Amino acid sequence: MTEPTLGGDAPLSPENDRVLQQLQAAVPLTRKDFVSDQEVRWCPGCGDYSILAQTQKVMPDFGYAKENIVFISGIGCSGRLPYYMNTYGFHSIHGRATTLATGLKAARPDLMVWVITGDGDALSIGGNHLLHSMRRNVDIKVVMFNNRIYGLTKGQASPTSEFGKVTKSTPAGTVDNPISPLTIALAAEASLIARSVDTHTEHLQATLDRVGRHKGSVFLEVLQNCNIFNDGAHRDFTDREVREDRMLILEHGRPMIFGKDRDRGIRLAGHQPEIVTLGVDGVTEADLLVHDESDPLIAYMLSRIYWPEFPVPVGVILDVKRPTHDELLSAQLEEAVAKRGVGDLRTLLDGGETWEVTA
User: Fold this and answer.
1) Domain 29-254+291-340 class, CATH top level
2) 106 with 140: CB under 8 angstroms?
3) What is the separation, in whole angstroms, between the first and last Cα of the chain?
4) Longest dimension (CA), the chain
5) HSE (CB half, 13 Å, CA atoms) of 62?
6) Which residues neighbour 33 within 8 Å (Cβ) at sequence distance 6 or greater?
7) Where are the domains of the chain?
8) Res 33 pLDDT > 90
């Protein structure tokens, strides 16, 4: 990635960089500023179009110069998104987007770094890399498109495909239990975990706004449709006609209520969640479980409840604050310099055990 310039080839000096930031602040950016000149090429009707549109809409609100934003992707249909963002970007190799993002954020902590990935890219070949970026609390925003299928490779079962799913790679039905992405993120200690839906544009935009403003490791699962190889993957609970009864919109500090008539909710029976109806058997809102984004036990419960037994939770599951990877690295470097002075590469190379090889 090259340094931004103010004309010519010389990198920006700190003073010029400050001037550039002031100029950009004086002329607010719009969505159009984040639309690249590349033709968007996904299958007609793909949910990726909606995710791209909502991402472009929220980007001006974060106050970052385009030159200080980077989108990194792996392999898969989602991997094309960096081409369509008028920012810096990398289209990397399969499963390694979080690895590149970790290195970039360590070297340039001032950048806003997004990782765009799919359920196969992130949770199969990329699972190990994803886990370690989250446990380190690397300040990157991982947005995982979950269509429960390998789309780019034409319809094989993915780590999130439901048990028994018949695909090109599992003609008799998959015998593997699907991964719960939110549970994986919780186990790896991501500091913000959320879920949204490609077609719920207002909710997706608001969730992306939360993602962009969080400092730390973010994991956002976007339930997304692949209308070619897995059409209707989430339709049973995301379609407009049914979603009020089959989805639970989470709000911090508010009781867990759902239903078209807002008359059903979630309460705890011991340590198990159960669905109750308001007004029946004396049940009131005071009996319902209140969502607390800072409580990992509530977050774990929400990551483990599924349709059709329960409504599918969407929104911010967990939001906690802890030091980021780049902050801790910077503190170590400052302490080392304070104790030992500025390092010298030649001294380092010549130090320790050295020897001379002769013919």
Assistant:
1) alpha beta
2) no
3) 42
4) 93
5) 26
6) 60, 66, 86
7) 29-254+291-340, 255-290
8) yes
